[in-house]
Amino acid sequence: MAQIVTVGLAIRSALVAGAVVTIALAFGATALMFVLYRSLLSALDDAATARAQDITTSLRSNQSAG
To answer: How many Å is the maximal CA-CA distance in the chain?
Structure first.
């Protein structure tokens, strides 16, 4: 006959705590990735705007000199 193995309260508590921490870390990592992605896009937009302004300034100075 198979013997039923019972898991103690301490082991169950540790498993639940581990699961809660794992889920919290997953949510935290997802939030951090979202914030970093938005920051990267913002920096890319700023760099593109600055580059476009530099090109416009260069073209305007070439037209007035020529």
So the answer is: 99
Number of domains comprising the chain: 1
Sign of the Cα pseudo-torsion (17, 22, 26, 31, in order): positive
What would the two tokens of residue 62 be?
A: 């070439």
Query: What are 11-61's pLDDT values in tens digits?
Result: 999 999 999 999 999 999 999 999 999 999 999 999 999 999 999 999 999
Residue 54 lies in a domain: yes
* Lookup: tokens for 57: 């300034």
Chain-centroid distance, C-alpha 41: 12
